[in-house]
């Protein structure tokens, strides 16, 4: 693998990009690695003699490799690529290459690979040569075979099950991609390159790792010996253009009236929990709601891997830290939530609540940090409340059940339920208020819910968002305080008409 040999040869790591140097390196210094014979020579000449540059055959203009539908790779293609790659490693000086910016480094590599193909007389069509150039540049400077998938904005998830099998989710459906890796060593090296960018590691001694890409996409890696068939890499991709509520309306995830209701909930500083199963769009919805936080508010986010991308100017982003190889130095979500209470937050956003930190978040919501938000894995709003009780018990608290429920009722105002339906579509299925206690039972009421009416000839579910007849929700006085009562009444009235 290039990254491994590059480290041995130069003492520098080759990442996804390179910092610009004070003085750009020339092509000659990049091509000639000290102490290695020059392999790029004029045909027929002694390889040890002076290099005579050979002009590569002109290439016709081609669309980017990531934009074309690629033919399935053959063993001959991988054998050719391996030979070209080995020749490139023997020729290039990584210490000089690392001084170039990403675009210049890519051009230098393309020039050298063109020369190698010409010298070795590989029989390749122009399109094959262009794809080979792109693949090798991706291997050296980017994430190898993953680059074409990362460049596509229609892919929601990338799931790599060892070097020979890659699945992607497109339009809510999981399909197998033609992308594969040279071997498991190349896949593991790319995984290590990804996680090292956020100061983490993955190897046999630490085989599980959560990380992120520069655009915020979530990454999980589990390596051998835990993953039997080779490293398993899962990437939850974020779209380049961040979704907003208007786009969710366009996709049918919610109605315009429901979107207005969510805007008001975010605007009037209701404490919100977004509930949903895996892949239901909880983080995307949380990102949408944070757009309605006022610009002057101080917001602090706490996440396992930093995914939220808030647009406000006054945002502090915090991220947990796993233990080091000695098992020390771990910073948990609970540590972050506790610490952010001392940072004068006006709103606290927890990316995902999955343990005892829920108690600290509820305490924060109940002590002046109105408008705080978080996400929880649960399939219904009622199950969401039960999970909160369970997570508080996991923290070792010995509070009576009624006291715990009273804390929850005093802290949570609204639960927004998201779901990924069986046809692959994502919908906001319920907007539920937490209104109080009756005896030992938490009382809730739905403001909006999604009703499924059937399915069409293509198997797509047909449904509609309807109101529940609530005229004045529990947070009505809060909405009136923020001068949003008229807009709230209009939105609720429109949802009731949709039901009729």
TrEMBL record:
Pro residues bias spans: 53-64
Gene source species: Neorhizobium turbinariae
Name used for this protein in its record: CpaF family protein
Sequence similarity: Belongs to the GSP E family.
InterPro entries: P-loop_NTPase, T2SS/T4SS_dom, T4SS_GSP_E_ATPase
Record-annotated membrane-spanning stretches: none
Compositionally biased spans, kind Low complexity: 16-34
Bacterial type II secretion system protein E domain: residues covered: 143-414
């Amino acid at each position: 693998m290039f990254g491994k040999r590059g480290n041995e040869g130069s003492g520098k790591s080759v990442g996804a990009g390179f910092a610009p140097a004070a003085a750009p390196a020339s092509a000659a210094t990049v091509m000639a690695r000290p102490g290695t014979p020059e392999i790029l020579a004029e045909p027929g000449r002694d390889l040890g003699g002076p290099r005579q540059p050979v002009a590569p055959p002109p290439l016709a203009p081609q669309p980017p490799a990531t934009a074309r539908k690629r033919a399935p790779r053959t063993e001959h293609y991988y054998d050719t690529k391996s030979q070209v790659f080995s020749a490139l490693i023997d020729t290039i000086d990584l210490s000089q290459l690392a001084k170039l910016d990403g675009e210049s480094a890519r051009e230098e590599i393309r020039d050298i690979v063109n020369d190698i193909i010409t010298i070795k007389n590989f029989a390749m069509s122009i399109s094959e040569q262009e794809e080979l150039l792109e693949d090798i540049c991706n291997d050296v400077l980017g994430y190898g075979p993953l680059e074409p998938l990362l460049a596509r904005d229609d892919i929601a998830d990338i799931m790599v099950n060892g070097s020979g099998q890659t699945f992607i989710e497109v339009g809510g459906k999981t399909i197998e991609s033609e992308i594969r890796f040279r071997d498991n060593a190349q896949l593991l090296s790319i995984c290590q390159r990804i996680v090292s960018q956020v100061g983490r590691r993955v190897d046999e001694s630490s085989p599980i790792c959560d990380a992120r890409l520069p655009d915020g996409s979530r990454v999980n890696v589990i390596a051998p010996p835990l993953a039997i068939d080779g490293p398993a890499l899962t990437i939850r991709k974020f779209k380049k253009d961040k979704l907003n509520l208007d786009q969710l309306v366009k996709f049918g995830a919610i109605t315009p009236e429901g979107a207005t209701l969510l805007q008001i909930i975010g605007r009037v500083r209701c404490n919100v929990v977004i509930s949903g199963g895996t892949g239901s769009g909880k983080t995307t919805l949380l990102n949408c709601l944070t757009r309605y936080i006022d610009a002057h508010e101080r917001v602090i986010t706490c996440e396992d891997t930093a995914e939220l991308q808030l647009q406000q100017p006054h945002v502090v982003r915090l991220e947990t830290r796993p233990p080091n190889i000695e098992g020390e130095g771990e910073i948990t979500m609970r540590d972050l939530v506790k610490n952010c209470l001392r940072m004068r937050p006006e709103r606290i956003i927890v990316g995902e609540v999955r343990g005892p930190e829920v108690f600290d978040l509820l305490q924060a919501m109940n002590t002046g940090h109105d408008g705080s938000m978080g996400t929880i894995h649960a399939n219904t709003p009622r199950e969401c409340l039960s999970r909160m009780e369970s997570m508080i018990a996991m923290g070792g608290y010995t509070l009576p059940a009624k006291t715990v429920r009273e804390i929850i009722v005093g802290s949570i105002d609204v639960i927004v339920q998201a779901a990924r339906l069986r046809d692959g579509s994502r919908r906001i299925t319920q907007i539920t208020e937490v209104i109080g206690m009756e005896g030992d039972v938490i009382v809730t009421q739905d403001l909006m819910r999604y009703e499924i009416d059937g399915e069409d000839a293509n198997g797509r579910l047909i449904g509609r968002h309807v109101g529940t007849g609530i005229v004045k929700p529990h947070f009505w006085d809060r909405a009136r305080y923020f001068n949003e009562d008229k807009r709230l009444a209009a939105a609720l009235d429109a949802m009731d008409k949709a039901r009729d």
